[in-house]
Design the sequence.
């Protein structure tokens, strides 16, 4: 009987059945996409860790001989163990250990070290990699929780989906309260009613869940491909390969089924708990619990406005999903567009405009000192190269007597006021960061000529400027001289060590930095020195960074294709001997724009998805309210409301449903954009000229259009109904 | 043989200032095979009494015993099973499921119990009620009188201890009303079915063996006829 009843109901109420199926499809699609993306991000993360740090799980360091190694290899849970030649020294051998069951690693490793007669701290763990498998040191009070974070996101998303889609079930179930009252009155138990509804949900949702899950996988494949395409030129990134595991499919299906189950169970349980009397008396009409008065709508549209307002208030619960999804999608879409516009303006100011002419191709030579780079001339000879310079950076500090601080800085209130805690004053001198930029000799000479300083002998050029943080913000920086241009030499020392300072002769002071793609610290006294000078002092001072950079400027008017070819040539020259990473300016700009576009598409798609959920809810309501509101409209007609009046009511309701999210969103958007502009110190007028008004208006119009369409269809069906029948007090018919 | 016994039934709706006493200390006893009419003006509490007797509603105070079982303390599931097996309810507005055929509507209490109908009894009921040729129709394809007969058939299909009819003729014309009352009398006589009929129509009440009058939630008269 239940089967006949459900089949018959599904057949006769296609609109509400479709709305349930769409809800199940969307939730499965979303969860499948989420699970598959998480799995792929996780996989990528693990791959990245293995590439950068190796795939070892445990590591034992100490005096380990062949027998010890065999002992490790024969340990019950050890899959393999091998000597890490790269890290091992004669006295200390490093053994990488791989386990069969990694979960017991924190128990097994101490046992192994104990057997080897080593201290417990001889064992180390690849905590980052292990944490990706949710394996944490039991002693660690604050283990990395990235995976747990992923899981929490999944649970939150599922709960959000439950909140969103349970309404589709509620709408169709509530339409039958009276019928379930009849069942109840002839002896159907709450359990039987609940089971009937759940079976109905299962039948309706099985196919959409399966299809949604499969399409979700396909979409995630698309997203991974899109990310690969957009981020193809990001230096140091390895390509993501789409991967999928049957277990993920099982998890997706389980989570989707659970989400749909809870969504259906919530209204089903509520409905089955109604007493037969409550249910049988329910005519399905919209009821207001309290007296309400829709002042604004009444004022604007008269009695139709008041009636529409009351109807909307009575449907408040049913329309909650629409309001929430539409508001979130409006808000998300507008804030996202404004954010990307602001971010674009900011990137232009802080990066593309600032470094427009500072570089065309940048090559990072990995783990190589500048003294080893011998291909500079060869690079300069390449077709299309205007100039090139190789440079390396090193960290030092210098002590500047208080009396040597420039008058301009003192006029601003002293170095303490300008630089705050970035500098420290001790015994009458300021300890200031003094990064060294070591340039190849030819590049340094070119720089000296550019700023009009003679560079005979050994010495440095000091970038004598400090950000005037009192009178300018970080976005539009102004500089003043850092120190009085008096000293012939500056004493440099290694950070954290006061001993063995090196006196570096100063050729001259400048406020003009060389053409390098570098952003110097705000309160540092940067020194530029030639390689020949560095070779003399490097024994005593300086912690050079591991990598050396080669900045290449190309001929004017070079195109992307030409620059790509030039980049390839340069890499060929330098990459023969060293590991290199390269970037080129035009490609980076294109990639950056693509990344922004990609992010906008992904976030935009999320907003559109939210809007679709909201609109689907409006459709399910308007198509489902035929039975619910037939009597209401029949009553209006019986007291003389014309079909035009009813159409007016529909229009008002559609206007409110689509307009309310807009009204909520606009002030919130203005506030958040205002906050973003203030925080980023951008000129508001600059933002206003680039305000993404067209896409926002299109989005708004699309939502208004769809809500109007839903009301047009629902309203048309309502107006075609026989209202006289509806006035008879037979709510069963 | 006593089939129904009510002791001190009270039903109060709301609380505080909004408190309304629908039934006030009702004592009632009905024997098997009796045809009792409960009459009273609108709002007198007769429908509330019927809902409590049918376990559709619970009393605020008091005890209702049907065939030796106290139904006033039952939980929802027990009440539902009790209604299914021991009570047949007939409403003014038929309350048939519009998407099920008349046959399935009639067999609903048995289907809920996953029981097969006794074909002979089923045919006897539908033939007596004159709807044997309407079994494969949907409720909306039948007249009001035919729908009410189907509702009575559904209420009788489980051979309930009590048949409770709440204004079963309230929505019917005179001819159909008479036919429905005749059907109820027939089932009372032929099947020894205990019937409690709620009506505000004195003429219909006169068809019963006993008339109980309710006013303001109290029984003000209880007289046997004939």
Sequence:
């Amino acid at each position: 009987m239940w089967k006949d009843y459900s089949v018959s109901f599904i057949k006769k109420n296609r609109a509400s059945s479709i709305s349930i199926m769409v809800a199940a499809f969307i939730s499965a699609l979303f969860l499948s996409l989420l699970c598959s993306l998480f799995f792929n991000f996780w996989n990528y993360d693990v791959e990245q860790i293995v590439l950068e740090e190796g795939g070892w799980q445990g590591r034992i360091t100490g005096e380990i001989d062949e027998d010890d190694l065999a002992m490790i290899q024969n340990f019950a849970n050890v899959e393999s163990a091998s000597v890490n030649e790269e890290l091992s020294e004669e006295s200390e051998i490093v053994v990488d250990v791989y386990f069969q069951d990694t979960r017991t690693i924190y128990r097994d490793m101490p046992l192994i070290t104990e057997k080897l007669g080593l201290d417990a701290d001889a064992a180390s763990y690849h905590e980052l990699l292990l944490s990706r498998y949710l394996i944490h040191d039991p002693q660690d009070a604050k283990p990395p929780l990235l995976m747990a974070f992923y899981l929490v996101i999944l649970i939150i998303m599922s709960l959000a989906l439950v909140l969103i889609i349970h309404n589709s079930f509620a709408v169709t179930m509530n339409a039958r309260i009276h019928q379930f009252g009849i069942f109840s009155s002839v002896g159907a138990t709450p359990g039987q009613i609940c089971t009937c509804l759940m079976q109905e949900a299962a039948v309706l949702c099985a196919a959409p869940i399966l299809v949604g899950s499969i399409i979700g996988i396909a979409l995630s494949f698309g997203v991974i491909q899109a990310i690969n395409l957009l981020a193809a030129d990001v230096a140091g990134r390895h390509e993501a390969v789409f991967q999928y595991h049957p277990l993920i499919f099982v998890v997706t299906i389980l989570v989707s089924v659970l989400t749909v189950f809870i969504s259906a169970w919530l209204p089903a349980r509520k409905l089955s708990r109604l007493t037969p009397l409550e249910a049988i008396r329910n005519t399905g009409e919209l009821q207001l619990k309290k007296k309400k008065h829709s002042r604004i709508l009444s004022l604007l549209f008269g009695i139709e406005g008041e009636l529409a307002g009351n109807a909307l208030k009575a449907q408040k619960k049913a329309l909650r999903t629409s309001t929430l999804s539409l508001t979130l999608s409006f808000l998300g879409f507008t804030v996202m567009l404004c954010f990307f516009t602001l971010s674009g303006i900011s990137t232009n100011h802080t990066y593309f405009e600032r470094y427009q002419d500072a570089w065309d191709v940048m090559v990072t030579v990995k783990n190589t000192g500048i003294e080893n780079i011998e291909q500079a001339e060869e690079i300069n000879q390449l077709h299309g190269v205007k100039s090139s310079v190789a440079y390396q950076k090193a960290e030092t500090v210098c002590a500047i007597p208080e009396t040597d601080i420039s008058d301009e800085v003192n006029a601003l209130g002293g170095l303490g006021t300008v630089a705050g805690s970035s500098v420290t004053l001790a015994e009458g001198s300021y300890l200031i960061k003094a990064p060294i930029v070591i340039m190849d000799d030819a590049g340094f000479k070119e720089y000296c000529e550019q700023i009009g300083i003679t560079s005979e002998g050994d010495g440095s050029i000091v970038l004598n400027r400090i950000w005037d943080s009192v009178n300018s913000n970080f976005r539009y920086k102004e500089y003043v001289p850092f120190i009085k241009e008096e000293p012939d030499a500056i004493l440099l020392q290694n950070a954290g060590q006061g001993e063995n300072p090196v006196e570096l002769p100063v050729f001259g002071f400048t406020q003009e930095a060389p053409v390098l793609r570098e952003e110097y610290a705000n309160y540092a006294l940067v020194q530029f020195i030639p390689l020949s000078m560095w070779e003399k002092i490097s024994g005593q001072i300086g912690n050079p960074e591991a990598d050396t950079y080669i900045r290449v400027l190309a001929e004017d008017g070079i195109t992307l294709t030409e620059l790509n070819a030039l980049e390839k040539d340069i890499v060929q020259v330098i990459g023969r001997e060293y590991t290199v990473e390269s970037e080129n300016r035009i490609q980076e700009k294109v990639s950056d724009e693509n990344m922004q576009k990609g992010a906008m598409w992904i976030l935009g798609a999320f907003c559109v998805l939210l809007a679709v959920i909201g609109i689907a809810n409006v459709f399910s309501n308007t198509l489902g309210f035929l039975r619910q509101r037939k009597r209401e409209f029949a009553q209006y007609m019986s007291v003389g409301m014309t079909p035009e009046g009813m159409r007016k009511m529909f229009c008002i309701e559609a206007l409110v449903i689509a307009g309310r999210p807009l009204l909520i969103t606009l002030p919130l958007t203005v506030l958040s954009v205002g906050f973003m502009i203030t925080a980023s110190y951008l000129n508001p007028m600059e933002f206003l000229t680039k305000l993404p008004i067209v896409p926002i208006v299109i989005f708004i119009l699309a939502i208004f259009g769809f809500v109007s369409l839903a009301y047009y269809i629902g309203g048309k069906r309502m107006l075609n109904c026989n209202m006289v029948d509806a006035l008879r007090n037979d709510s069963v018919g | 043989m006593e089939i129904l016994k009510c002791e001190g039934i009270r039903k109060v709706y709301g609380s505080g200032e909004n408190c309304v006493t629908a039934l006030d200390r009702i004592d009632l006893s009905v024997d098997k095979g009796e045809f009792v009419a409960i009459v009273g003006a609108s709002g007198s509490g007769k429908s509330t009494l019927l809902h409590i007797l049918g376990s559709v509603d619970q009393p605020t105070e008091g005890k209702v015993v049907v065939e030796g079982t106290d139904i006033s303390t039952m939980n929802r599931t027990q009440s539902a099973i009790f209604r299914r097996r021991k009570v047949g309810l007939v409403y003014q507005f038929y309350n048939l499921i519009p998407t099920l055929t008349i046959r399935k509507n009639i067999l609903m209490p048995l289907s809920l119990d996953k029981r097969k109908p006794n074909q002979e009894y089923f045919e006897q009921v539908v033939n007596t009620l004159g709807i044997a040729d309407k079994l494969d129709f949907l409720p909306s394809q039948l007249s009001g009188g035919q729908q009410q007969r189907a509702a009575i058939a559904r209420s009788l299909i489980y051979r309930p201890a009590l048949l409770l009819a709440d204004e079963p003729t309230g929505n019917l014309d005179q001819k159909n009303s008479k036919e429905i009352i005749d059907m109820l009398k027939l089932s009372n006589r032929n099947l020894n079915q205990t019937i409690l009929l709620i009506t505000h129509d004195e003429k219909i009440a006169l068809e019963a063996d006993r008339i109980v009058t309710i006013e303001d939630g109290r029984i003000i008269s209880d007289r046997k006829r004939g």
